[in-house]
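Lay summary. Proteins are chains of building blocks that fold into shapes, and those shapes determine what they do. In this project we predict the shape from the chain. Here is one chain we studied, written as its sequence of building blocks.
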Amino acid sequence: MDNVIIEICNINNIKPTEIKRISVGLDNYVFYIKSAAKEYVIRCNTKPYNETIKLTENLYRLGVPVPQTLFSGKYKNLYYMISAYIDGKDLGLVYADLSFDDKRIIAKEVCEIQNKVSGINLTQPFNQSDWVRQMLKRAEERISKTQYFNIAKVEVVADLSKRFEKYYNSIKPVAYLDDISTKNLMINNGRVSGIVDTDWLGYGDPLTFVALTNVALLNDGYDTLYVDSLLEEMRVSQEQKKAFLFYSLLYCVDFMIERGMNFNGNRVEVSSEIIASLNAIYDRLLADLEIAKQLT
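And here is the predicted shape, written in a compact code that computers can read:
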């Protein structure tokens, strides 16, 4: 793959002094490139990046700290886009070193960014119930196939989802960045330095990105003080808190189905310890939701 990256660099008059694979993402081949004068990030995929580039430009104009796209094109069977490099590391890679104040300030910065994104006018259809059903259907299919986890866990979440129909119908849908959790959110010196890999926007309930972050932190064995700060900044109601916990359960099941799967040559690790950990997270979230329901 390095030879392909070198050829892409040559096409765009970049003379790399260092090439390093970034393996955090699952859907793209991503490389860090350093030249004598600049640093870049190259993303490659078998699908074109037209929509990603258009969205990134739109977000950049709104003041969202996304990297500028410098070059794009196709080399053999691969499409590529070359972006400016943003200094920083994924939140998950620095989380253990952040203070509570850092987490609180990052949460405030992220909510300010999401408020900017919410101003984007999307005309696409919205049905939160359909989104939940699609997530559950995928979970049922994949867990039945891999058999690392008990299918009954999906059935419990599916049953719980029916209790939130009234809540789904009450949502005023907005655009939001739905794929910033412990990844894609770049942190430098305890502050947000940028957001990367913006291939699409979510549309609907922004609590889902908080729930995804919640499960990602729990999965990495971290505290969830950052998530608590996000919920505080968003001024969630008791009903929204219950929905957040339900979404967290839904994402916990989603994390389960990734185990043992392959994405662009990267196999998502699975072991008895990982299975036990995700089962424990599921049980904790289910208990938290039951407690929240009793507080109504």
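What the prediction tells us: Residues 2-85 form a domain with the Phosphorylase Kinase; domain 1 fold (CATH 3.30.200.20).
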